[in-house]
């Protein structure tokens, strides 16, 4: 446990000292909120559909968590390439603590970035429920989602051989998962084939449940199903990360 905390603290110190890491992954979600959210919200408001920001914000929070998870994978890959991983492996610490420290720091950074985007979205017109249980539900949903994709990112980073190759995965993580979900449009109004794709996308379950518990929206998917899907995602992501990490250090 001490080794996990030490690695987590090391990653977090580096995170807060690095303006590129701290702010780089926030630029895209900030633009989505400040430009697309405000602009589209203004158009829809004039058409009698108020508060598009509250509808959009859960999707942008998901995008932010995805970016944070992908960023954690880059840290692990960078440590492999620069030989820092070998220093961890010869140290008298449990090898699993190396992975757990990376998962913990990746999830923490993703949640920190999510909070920044949430505050920005609320300042620009988003409306959060007044029920603290809804805030807790949102935190649990985002955490499960972040852990799941942190595990997937670390699994890929454990196998990747270059930063450039890993960057190709970022495109798979970010915009395709956002567009193939209910982030921008109501699930029921999507064409049938996109609806099928969206239902295979765990991002859809996070967004639908987040709207219901924290943004005064209505769930189109039972909340229990959404929580269960995200729990499976978290467990599955961690299993993949562990399997990939073990095969790498043999």
Secondary-structure topology with pairs:
Blueprint: H1 2-17, H2 19-46, H3 52-81, H4 84-90, H5 95-123, H6 132-159, H7 163-173, H8 175-179, H9 192-199, H10 202-214, H11 223-249
Helix pairs in contact: 1-5, 2-3, 2-5, 3-5, 3-6, 3-7, 3-10, 5-6, 6-10, 6-11, 10-11
Q: What does this protein look like?
A:
With 250 residues, the chain is mainly alpha-helical. 81% of the residues lie in helices and 0% in strands. It is built from eleven helices and no strands. The protein has helices spanning 2-17, 19-46, 52-81, 84-90, 95-123, 132-159, 163-173, 175-179, 192-199, 202-214, 223-249. Helix 3 packs across helix 10.
Strand content: under 5%
Tally of helical runs = 11
Shape, please? elongated
Helix/strand-derived class?
mainly alpha
Whole-Å distance between the termini? 22 Å
Q: Tell me roughly what share of residues is in helical segments.
A: over 70%
Query: What kind of sheet is the major sheet?
Result: none
The unreliable regions are none
Instruction: List SSEs in N-to-C order.
Output: HHHHHHHHHHH
Main features:
81% helix; 250 residues; elongated; 11 helices; mainly alpha; 0% strand
Quick synopsis:
The protein has 250 residues and is mostly helical. It has 11 helices and no strands.
